[in-house]
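Dear support,

I submitted the protein below through the web form. The confirmation email said the job was done, but the results page showed an empty box. After a refresh the structure appeared. I'm attaching both so you can tell me whether what I see now is the final result or a partial one.
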Amino acid sequence: MIRYIGKRLLMMVPVLLGVIVIVFTIMYLTPGDPARMMLGAGAPASAVEELRETLGLNDSYFVQLLRYIKNVVFRFDLGQSYASNKPVINEILERFPKTILLATLSVTISVIVGISMGIISATKQYSIFDKIATSIALLGVSMPTFWAGLMAVIIFSVHLRWLPASGSYGWEYWILPSLTLGLSSSATIMRMTRSSLLEVIRQDYIRTARAKGQNERVVIIYHALKNAMIPVITVIGMRFGALLGGSVLIESVFAISGLGKFIIDSISMRDNPVVQGGVLLLALSFSICNLLVDILYGFLDPRIKSQYSISRKRGWRRNAQAQ
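What the results page shows now:
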């Protein structure tokens, strides 16, 4: 299992390097002069040129790219923010916990709702509940999250006045954004749970468990659901990673000062170090989510464990024969 995890960790290295190069290249080619935006439109050209020299913006593309990679890899330095002149890592870590909290709450809601509806839909196939749940899932997948957020604000904040419309000053401020993202993601999880569970409950070992007189709830929960959860876990991990970087619209709608909104604001201000550092952190978070999913595979799917245990035994035999 350790070899399996180590292999996945090594695969993250070229992914992160590719993200660094791509984001740096995009920001380098983006029109606009960060020095001019920092000093203002009325600043003299000499001052702008002096600031560009200080920031290293006059260097060639490859010199700037290699310098940035060296600072990130060997010094863990993401640079200084052009707007606030503070370390980028501090600016990001100040806002990232709110994005993690929003993503965690949303995924928790989506997992509870999606898996529950998927199990009931699969066990009661073609029933009224199955048709209603499938229709709701189709609506949730098709409905844009920013539109759902605006509708939630109009209904529950403006008209009913049950919940606050914006901010993140208490637990009640997280209800609407979490439900908006969570219910949207639960549609995807529900559809995957339903299709996977329908495939599993038609297997021979499920018929054998029923023939032995097992309770239907025991058959579904302890026999069928474990094998059906393998593709569902993939969807959950991908949704959590996507919510970390894709919650920018909801953060903007509900005025949550998270990392996604901070990156969007930095793009408009041409604050390149913040954009590059924020995207790199999101890519790292997404990669860690995929790694955790792969580790869960090893516990849920015995074939992965056996694959690496067999290869390890073969390595021991080769060493023994060589000696």
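Response: this is the final, complete result; the empty box was a page-load delay. The two ends are 26 Å apart (CA to CA).
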